[in-house]
Specification:
- The structure is a single chain.
- This protein has 5 helices and 7 strands.
- The protein has about 180 residues and is α/β, with parallel strands linked by helices.
- About 35% of the residues are buried.
Length: about 180
């Protein structure tokens, strides 16, 4: 996997102060995407264990709330396989940090068994993240007044409640 950038002390891509990892590679290619350079799977730098260690050491600083993974597209098949170890490390080593993920895919259509981006590790990723912002960015539905999403079709999903109730539960942050 490649990544386009890592933003430290980010406050735009989730609540609190975050480390944000922009992975490379996206087949959604949404018109008006703010990170279109990350559509290319080879954009940026190679994601390595040393980069993972750097993210973990940065997240250990007391002012961080959590990690955000976006892109590009974290739920592209190869990206899921590469980011799972990072997600597991955050949950094991930094239990007080939350994890947000952004995807252009739709949770209940694409990320559940039978969906076009469901693979062996998808459930483990979904079980270990706190918030999922899902849905393609649709330029005609763009609304700059929305918190944590770019277009009105996107949803901010509380993953712990969604997984336990087995139906989509929107976060209080959805509005």
């Amino acid at each position: 996997m490649h990544y386009g950038q890592i933003i430290l002390t980010d406050c735009a891509n989730g609540t609190g102060i975050r480390v944000s990892l922009f992975v490379s590679g996206c087949t959604n290619c949404c018109k008006g995407c703010f990170q279109s350079e990350t559509w290319d799977f080879n954009y940026g730098k190679v994601y390595t264990h040393e980069i993972e260690d750097f993210i973990i050491s940065e997240l250990k600083k007391p002012y961080y709330t959590g990690l955000t993974i976006l892109g590009g597209e974290p739920f592209e098949i190869t990206n899921q396989i590469a980011i799972l170890p990072l997600i597991k490390r955050v949950k094991n080593e930094l239990k007080d940090r939350d994890i947000w993920m952004y995807t252009g895919f739709t949770y209940d259509e694409d990320l559940l068994p039978g969906g076009k981006r469901y693979i062996a590790v998808t459930d483990e990723i979904l079980d270990n993240i706190d918030i999922l912002v899902d849905g393609k960015f649709i330029e005609t539905l763009k609304n700059i007044s929305l918190k944590f999403k770019g277009s009105e079709n996107q949803r901010v999903i509380d993953m712990k409640k969604t997984r336990s109730k087995k139906k989509v539960v929107l976060s209080y942050l959805n509005d």
